[in-house]
Each structure stands twice: as C-alpha cells, then as structure tokens.
C-alpha cells in the first residue's frame, strides 16, 4: 500500500524546512555544545527529508529525484507547517533586520518534536512498509530532539527573569501556529482512510499532555488561541518561506541539470 | 581545522626562552623530552612550555571555531541535499574539534572563558586562512582539499606532540580531517565532470586559495619566531619549509588528476632535488592579514563576539536553572 505523494511531501517538506532553519545556528550558537547539538538536529531532519523525498520521487517517476523535489518546487507547492518556516525571532516581517532568538528556536523545536514523536510512532504501524521503516528511524531521532528541546524549555523558563520572559514570548508567538497540526489536509485524510497515515486529531490529547507537563515544569503558561489558523500544509505560507527557499534553491536553480 | 600557531606571535605570549635551572624537576622534564616521552597534566613543566602550549592549543581551538564561519556560509545554499548534509556534518566536526582542543588546553590550567576572552579581545590569534571569503560553492570543495590537506600535513606530526592530551586529541582530529579532505576532493571531481560553469568555478576557487594555503605553513623557518623552541620541546616536530614542500609535492599530482591549473608559473619538477620548485609567497599580504587587515578579519571576529554576547542570556539561564535545581535538592534532603 503506497502513501499519497502529497502526504510524503508534507512530511519531507517539514523536515527540510526545519533542517534549514536549525542549520542557521551553525557557527552562531550560544555555546559550543549547543552549536553542535543543533547541527545534529538539523542533520537528522535533512536525513529524514532525503529518505522521504527519495520515496516520493520513486513513486512519482518521470525523472523526479530528492533534489528536484527540494530545489525545483515553488513555495506554493511546499506542504510544511507554517510554524517551521518562521525565522528565529519574534513577530517581525521577513525582511526585518533582526537577531536570532534562541528561545524561538527551542520552543519551535519543542512543539514540533512533541508532535513528531507521536506521528512517527503511529507511522511505524503504517500500511506503507517503506514509510513505516522511515518512521522507525525518525522516531529515535525525534525522541532525542524532543528531549533536547524540552530540557531547554525548562532551563529557559525556570532560569533567569530574562530567559523566562523570552521563553514566554516565544510560546506566545508560536503557539497559534500549532493549531495547523489539528486540521487534517486532504492528503492526510486520504492517507488515514487507507491505513497509511496517522489521524492527527487523535494525537491532540497526547500532545497537550506532553506540552503542558513541560510548560508547567518551566513555569510557562499556554496562551489562549483564536483567529488565524495557518495553512502551510495546504501550500498557503507565511511571508517567510519565500526567503528561505530563495536562499536554499538559488544555486541549484542557477545550474539546472547540473550534478553536484 | 588547522593551526599555524607556533609561528604567529600574540600579545599574550612572552618570547619563549629556554630556561634551564639546575633544579631536579627541570632535569626530569628535560630528560623525558629527550627520551621522546609524554608530558601529562599532573607532571611538572616549565612555565614557558605551559604558556607555549596554551597559546598553540587555544589558537588551534579558536581556528576550528572561526573556521566554521567561512564554510558555514554555504550550508543554506548547498546545491543538493546530500552536499548540504555533508557540509553540516563537516562544520559540526570542526565544532567538535574546538571542543576537544579547549578541553585539552583546560588541562593546562586555563578556562574556556579565559581563552574565549582572549579571542574576542583580539589578543589571541586564529588561523589566518579563515580571513579570506568563500565566494562560490567550489570554495567548499577547495577548502576540504587544500586547506584541510595543508592542515593534515601540519597536524599529523602533532599526534606525536610531547604534551599527552594535545597529542591524543590530534589523533581524532586528524582522522576526521582526512575524511574531510577526501570529501572535498570528491566534490571537486564531480564538478570537474560537469558543466563549463562548474569547471570554471573550481578553477577560480583553486586560483584564489592556492597561495593562501602555501602560506598556512607559516613563514620560512629562518623567520619563524617560535619554531626552534617548539622543535626542541617536541611540540613541533617538522619545520615549516619541509612541511610546505611535502604539501606541494603531494598536491601537484592531485591537481593534474582533477584537471585544474595551480596558479604558479614557477611550479615545476626539479629532478636534482626530487621535489617541485615553486614561486615566491607574498608574505607582506600574509602578515597584513595576520595582523588584522585581511578581507574578512573584522567580520569573522565580530561574528564570534556577537554569537557569544547574544548567547549570554542562554548560558545565564542554564546556570541559574542548575543552581535552583541544586537548591531544591538540598531543601528536599534537609
């Protein structure tokens, strides 16, 4: 049983976009150990993206490859969560000159990590054997990512007044982007119907429990959410993805057909 | 990634003079050096030996960390996911080398904070090679092939360095650097089989980096302020000129296989010497860059300082949390 290509692309786009974002800290981390840890997290995501794109490409045929999918699709074709494309700073427009805020990075990795330990775990039982194998590998990585991010959420929340304020601001900024997790896309609905995908709505209680436990330990509060619900996984993104892809794809697109 | 540290004086270092006292400790130290033995952190060592090592190892660590920047410049734009993964892993390795080396230097009684302070204030140096820009994707391959290649030439002898922790750290560093060098060369081989634009990119990068890499071995031995003492102490094992010649001899055939031209009209095989002759290195440009006036010195240092300064609140939070945890534990125990 084969997963719908759009479903694989959603998982792959999540991984490549967050991998790209986490790698932005390489050489700029707050302490050398964190520089190395975030590079590791990034590498895991790029690795996940490669496996998923390779699987999607094999099923699409027609000369598709991991790189044609990563480098030669436009913003509106990307199916990642909007949360993952946001820059490492608070609510500023994409071309605002601004500093990276480690709290934003950590809180994002935490929200996404808490989701993905549940998603990958469920997908290890997918009717798509290839996807189940990728899930088994990715689950181990996601557990580490969640562990790393949750530890830091607690350190930042419990640490100093400044770190607490930054962590709370990051939670307030990012929380509403998690609403997108719970609105099934057509690809997700199709994948669930065929026993391939995971019913995200069924994961919500477990995600809430994971998140609430860590936020409580970190003495951080969960904001009320209303209004805008992002739709990145439907291809409608924030203003930020265009910059991210512009940078990521530029060289590859300047040399179409080249082998690197 | 690389050190030319023995040769680059910094403001903190006093001239290393041989200070032999008749004292028994000193005699034991000298005897161990003469017998090619290892000095360990708990052993007595002359102050000048300790200072020289702190300078060299910390400069080496700083080079690893600053060296993450020029290559990191291309992570976000790597033209394939495979190359992106390889590059992230490589730059991460450099961070790991920095970590071992700071730890090795800490065994000499200096803290990472002190060493970083010396870097950020401009007192400590790092390898000047990282003060040049990475202008195209081919630079990533050329840095692997030539810069890491030169680094390996310098670093293999350091695996036999008289100071144990440094020598042991270098064994691991050298293994990873050799891997980086092969990866860099392989990336260039692929590009040289590609389009004219890719080939031109490789040639341009080789042309820009070649002379900088030759200068990485430091000034000629006759002009090298720290070489003689370093050789005596078993910290340095082979002179700058000999290492540079080894590098040239090893690299010319590799350039031929790759199909690139090394930008030196004087480069030719000398049958009598059984070595390649090569042209004059521009030492004035080298020293200007070492002294702070290269194309990227200010950017590199300012970026390190900013990362450290911006990270202060994160480090403070971790410490504050650890203290609170401890207090809570103590309270529970009471």
What does this structure look like?
The complex is a heterodimer of chains A (about 260) and B (about 325). Chain A has 10 helices and no strands. Chain A has about 260 residues and is mainly α. The relative contact order of chain B is 0.13. Chain B contains 12 helices and 2 strands. Chain B starts with about 25 loop residues before the first helix and ends with a helix. At the A-B interface, helix 1, helix 2, helix 3, helix 6 and helix 7 of A face helix 2, helix 3, helix 6, helix 11 and helix 12 of B.
Can I get a quick summary?
The complex is a heterodimer of chains A (260) and B (334). Chain A is mainly alpha-helical and 260 residues long.
Gap from first CA to last CA of chain A? 33 Å
Query: Which strand order does the major sheet of chain B show?
Result: 1-2
Terminal CA distance of chain B: 50 Å
Largest sheet of chain B: 2 strands, antiparallel
Number of helices of chain A: 10
In percent, how helical is the residue content of chain B?
Answer: 55-70%
Helix and strand sequence of chain A:
HHHHHHHHHH
Shape of chain A: globular
Number of β-strand runs of chain B: 2
Unreliable segments of 5+ consecutive residues of chain B: 1-20
Helix and strand content put the structural class of chain A at: mainly alpha
Multimeric organization: heterodimer
Q: Could you name the CATH homologous superfamily of chain A?
A: Ferritin, core subunit, four-helix bundle
- Overall 3D geometry of chain B? globular
Integer-rounded radius of gyration of chain B: 21 Å
What is the number of independent domains of chain A?
A: 1
Mean pLDDT over the residues of chain B: 91
- Which residue ranges of chain A are poorly predicted, with pLDDT under 50 across at least 5 consecutive positions? none
Q: Whole-number average pLDDT of chain A?
A: 95
